[in-house]
Amino acid sequence: MRAVRGLGSSLAAALALLAAALPGAVTPAAASEPCRTQVGPQELPAGVELRPLVELLGLPQAWDLATGAGVTVAVVDSGVDATHPDLDGRVARGSEFVGVREEREFVRDTPARQRDCEGHGTAVAGLVAARGADGEGVIGVAPGATVYPVRIADGVENATPRTFAAAIADAVAAGAGVINLSLAIPSDYEPIREAVERALAEDVVVVAAAGNEGDARMYPAAYDGVLAVGAVDAEGQPLDSSNPGDWVDLAAIGADQVVVSPGGEGYRAEGGTSMAAAQVSAVAALVRSRFPELPATEVAQRLIRSATPLGGGRNDRTGAGLVDPFGALTGLGGREGEGGDDAAAAPAGRVPVVPLPRDEPLLGPTRATGLAVSGVLLLAVLVGLLAAPGLRRAARRGWRAGTAPRRPAPEPPAPPGPPAARLAWLGGDGEGGEGGTTDHKAPHQNRSRTP
């Protein structure tokens, strides 16, 4: 992620900005009017899955560790309709900024009910923290988090830079741990930049959409310290509309998502980098819920380090890759070369993981060559030993085909006939001992003696 600039400002500075921008109380004439046109639910095609992100992002494993409980995500947008059953209990009272044709440009109001004419903010809020009423419906990435809506009553496209700056300051003052800015502005305005810098200095994670123009540098996503989010489809392919740039940090699913609709019921299909940014904001809420003492800068770094690389590595459309909730919560899945091997240098809360041993070959090139040569020589010796008898036989027959005639085996000398002569022959006395004669009766004379 790009370097985060710490300004050392305090919450009092953000509140001072807000107070200066909002002098006096709102008058009834300045309060927002009811919606002239109200976006409502759509009839979705048969078989459309309401919770595709649950499996695509591996959320069941992440929810075993954190659900976002205790974290407030501010949604600066078109408002949030909190009456939808899937958002029941997940939306705080929030605030509303209404434009006025005066020097002060706008006033702040707290509406009696949350209102969203366009449906954009409600869609973002549902992707962040919808809880899926009665086990059905849409469920957000951080269903335990609380959404704090900051409504731009006149429409995001009509708001002045000072209005945006005041809305960001309001979110900081409300105690938001994460601010979602699913909006894109083609110019760098000083009031917005300073408001973002104050939010970062107050330990807030700021997430912004990269925009859907196709090839443009957009703000506040391009500001230092802001998590800029691109969009991909369910297969991980970047959307053509998602703005590229070296300022894009990571990506999330931006193809058409089933989202909560305003009007108190039903669903719609929404897509783009706005929906992708909502998912990243929710993952930041999961991390802040699991590690409440982790600074915002390190929360952002965890999300980037744990992202799943797309397209062979970091690139201008998807940054570090697809956001990975489980990886961000556990510290698993960090890419090689980031962070170093020393566990003590890892960000607070990161689970130290012993690196797996490298698959080294059993033999180096030199030893492998030597072993091969030795094997060839040994094989040659064995072949020679086995072939030697055949060579000798071939030599005896003059190297002609056929079977060599066998030489008759010499007959052993016949031993002498009678036993006495046989014993003398064994004793080396020749045929008949000395003189050539042997007394054959002598041995029998001792068999019977007369006393």
Automatic annotation (TrEMBL):
Membrane topology value: Single-pass membrane protein
Domain of life: Bacteria
Location of the active site: D77, H120, S274
GO terms for biological process, alphabetical: proteolysis
Region forming the signal peptide: 1-31
Biased composition (Pro residues): 410-419
InterPro entries attached to this UniProt entry: Peptidase_S8/S53_dom, Peptidase_S8/S53_dom_sf, Peptidase_S8_Asp-AS, Peptidase_S8_His-AS, Peptidase_S8_subtilisin-like, Peptidase_S8_subtilisin-rel, T7SS_pept_S8A_mycosin
UniProt-recorded Gene Ontology molecular function terms: peptidase activity
Peptidase S8/S53 domain mapped to chain residues: 68-320
Membrane-crossing segments per the record: 371-391
Gene3D superfamilies: Peptidase S8/S53 domain
Keywords for this protein: Cell membrane, Hydrolase, Membrane, Protease, Serine protease, Signal, Transmembrane, Transmembrane helix
Biased composition regions of type Gly residues, renumbered to the chain: 427-436
Main localisation: membrane
Subcellular location: Cell membrane
Region (Disordered): 395-451
Cell membrane in keyword set: yes
Family listed: Belongs to the peptidase S8 family.
Identification of the protein by name: Type VII secretion-associated serine protease mycosin
Organism encoding this protein: Streptomyces millisiae
Primary gene name: mycP
